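Objective 1.3, modelling of assemblies. Example input:
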Amino acid sequence: DVKVTQSSRYLVKRTGEKVFLECVQDMDHENMFWYRQDPGLGLRLIYFSYDVKMKEKGDIPEGYSVSREKKERFSLILESASTNQTSMYLCASSFSRTGSYGYTFGSGTRLTVV
Amino acid sequence: QKEVEQDPGPLSVPEGAIVSLNCTYSNSAFQYFMWYRQYSRKGPELLMYTYSSGNKEDGRFTAQVDKSSKYISLFIRDSQPSDSATYLCASFTGGGNKLTFGTGTQLKVEL
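Predicted structure (tokens):
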């Protein structure tokens, strides 16, 4: 069964810490995405990547960066965590750049910043 | 105004009911439409996918797109408690590079 695996289900971090969220997919997809999901706001795109070492800003990139050194791995970095970054973070990958075959999501990482 | 609007619910129905979930969108360039289902503490999973206007049926699920009114619907027949989840609609343009999601409608099917 194809998978997108997020390294942590729950994380608690302190304000100001540097936080790494890891995502690995085993489907050989070129396209990977990071979303955050908040009540009433839905899924918002943070960053995406079409290829190794490529990245593009989504709708809410401020306070985040990403790294894609290998095709199967896409990392989200919170440079200095803040309480307003408390959220559910979802990683996704897709076969098609246009998403015409849909996205496969991981189970999410619920991050709490205290 | 959000590009994809969805009533958050919650929507509560008895088992066996026909459920209608709806979205509206504002971007006329949207051509591809999807429905995702998200169980509690899980990531969304693709449920239905349609291109342009028309209907698509898969078992108890029917997706309907009306581009003239910019309206997307998902119908669930003979609803089951296992259908209890949040349903997200999503759209993108043919040349676009990212999905735009609605905020999701929470559905509860009660015994």
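The first strand of chain A starts at residue 4 and ends at 6.
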